[in-house]
Give the backbone structure.
Amino acid sequence: MVNTTIDLGHGLVLRNPVMTASGTFGYGEEYTDFVDLSQLGGIIVKGTTLNPRQGNPYPRMAETASGMLNCVGLQNKGVQYFIDTIYPRIKDFDTNVLLNLSGSTLEDYVRGAEMIDALDKIPAIELNVSCPNVKQGGMAFGVTTEGITQVVSEVRKVYHKHLMVKLSPNVTNIAEIALAAEAAGADSLSLINTLLGMAIDAERRKPRLSMVTGGLSGACVKPVALRMVWQVAKVVKIPVVGLGGISNATDAVEFMLAGASAIQIGTANFIDPAISVKVAEGLKNYCECHDFEKATDLVGALET
Amino acid sequence: MKQTTDFKVQDRKDYGDAVLLRLRSKNQLLTILPGQFANVQVDGSSKTYLRRPISIHDVDDANNELSLLIQKVGEGTKRLAELKYGDKVNLVYPLGTGYTMPAPNDRVLLVGGGIGIAPLFYFAKMLNKKGVRPTMLLGGKSKDTLLRLADYEKQGEVFVTTEDGSLGEKGFVTAHSMWKDHEFDKIYVCGPKPMMQAVATIAKEKKIWCEVSLENRMACGIGACLCCVEDTVDGNVCVCKEGPVFNIDRLKW
Ligand SMILES: Cc1cc2nc3c(=O)[nH]c(=O)nc-3n(C[C@H](O)[C@H](O)[C@H](O)COP(=O)(O)OP(=O)(O)OC[C@H]3O[C@@H](n4cnc5c(N)ncnc54)[C@H](O)[C@@H]3O)c2cc1C
Ligand SMILES: Cc1cc2nc3c(=O)[nH]c(=O)nc-3n(C[C@H](O)[C@H](O)[C@H](O)COP(=O)(O)O)c2cc1C
Ligand code: FES
């Protein structure tokens, strides 16, 4: 029997390394017809902000070669609505439920984190300092070491559970940003968020997205994501959670070999709503076939 | 209850730029309401990465079969239209809400434009089962774009318009003379957005209850990604989950 347990530290223990990525898995409820949530390490619910947001106008999505662009723009009903209405429905899911917290000002992040801190059944926040789709959608914080130091250390003061910080790939030196987040008190780092991109309809000579630019995700971003996970895992001491284009168990193994302690599945959920449990199963099989007794033995096992 | 299911192509019929695919599942079909759709996996190639939403055109519960009527507009629909007998195709279904069933004595009009006639076939069949004989008003560019007309005529009275006048009255559905001497309690519309908006305007003027079926671009099809939203009186809502069928009172048209 393979031991698939992953301890990300500060109270966040996953029964296996597979989680689902924020913004691609709703609140988990949308997937219960397809997935037994108790077979997952965790789910990360929709990006939530202190105050409600209507998000960006339609069209918000454009398909690209082996991927998609989105400019949803963090549509959500706010932290208070989450606490009153959604949390009671999902708190007893038999898996780790993480909240993805976003904001446009430092105060928003801090106040949001304080409110989430009080929720017993949410073991961790994934701090989204990297959303490319809203003006100052946290990306302003996520692209400089000063910005990330500021937001992570302020949130750290009020949030007492596991703090995962999600990094933007839209930076020149990801390792520098990662080290700043670690130094400011992050318990783990997840990466990557979407890559800023654009699509044009040549016939109409118009952009395909209402906001002109949007975030690229899906299979096409995997090589970039893998490289960044490898660069970050080499320099930080805290666990790294890898994501970006993971579509099957082999992809997941690659991220773990590159140094990820756990992984997330995003856009692939749209193509096969049951892919997350299939990847969890496939990871276990890989360990069995290659005589790894523990999934943690895979982490950083890349031979270079 | 929704499911991911493999179907096999049992039969295909070509209609110019469109194809009718009859698909069979090994398992019993889930209950499908008229107006619901499936999210169809194409072939996972780099150009057809995401699934394509396609309305359920017809259902044959006894044989675990359902049909899709697909118009070739781009890479994905072209590939789907190449499927042959015995080919496998994977569907996530049934998705979205269906049309609101009318009362037994309601006078019902179904308006379809172009490939928008697709979901109206199964709807018309179910209406007949409930004892409601619908009137249908179908519009297309030319007579070749009005698919399966004879089959629709079995479900109720059909009026036709074509833009080139090759069949029925010339012009758009909204200009058809039948509007002058027919009255309806409920109108259901599916087709290109400008056409649905024009019919919605008539319905509003005549104060007739009206539902339309939207075709916003989708990714997940199950309400998880928030890509397919329509701006409604209740703010941005997911067409895949709260629709695709909407009462026109909810829309900001
Ligand atoms: C709920 C729902 C039900 C549908 N039912 C049917 C059906 O029964 N039969 C059928 O043939 N089609 C149906 N469609 C439309 C179908 O999903 C699209 O035609 C298909 O996804 C196009 O894929 P493609 O790869 O062929 O074209 P693409 O290469 O993606 O696009 C080709 C061209 O069509 C335009 N286009 C494609 N889809 C849309 C859209 N949704 N809105 C506006 N413009 C678009 C693109 O801008 C582009 O110019 C439905 C759509 C929805 C949302
Ligand atoms: C439609 C959509 C919505 C997203 N919303 C969020 C979000 O609210 N917060 C966030 O941190 N990331 C969000 N993301 C980014 C994903 O969580 C993930 O980082 C990215 O898509 C890369 O992974 P993938 O290639 O596996 O999808 C979103 C992605 C998509 C496609
Ligand atoms: S397509 Fe994802 S929410 Fe509608």
Notes: Chain A touches chain B at residues 23-26, 30-31, 33-34, 46, 54-55, 57-68, 70, 72, 75, 218-219, 267, 269-274 (CB under 8 Å). The two ends of chain A are 29 Å apart (CA to CA).
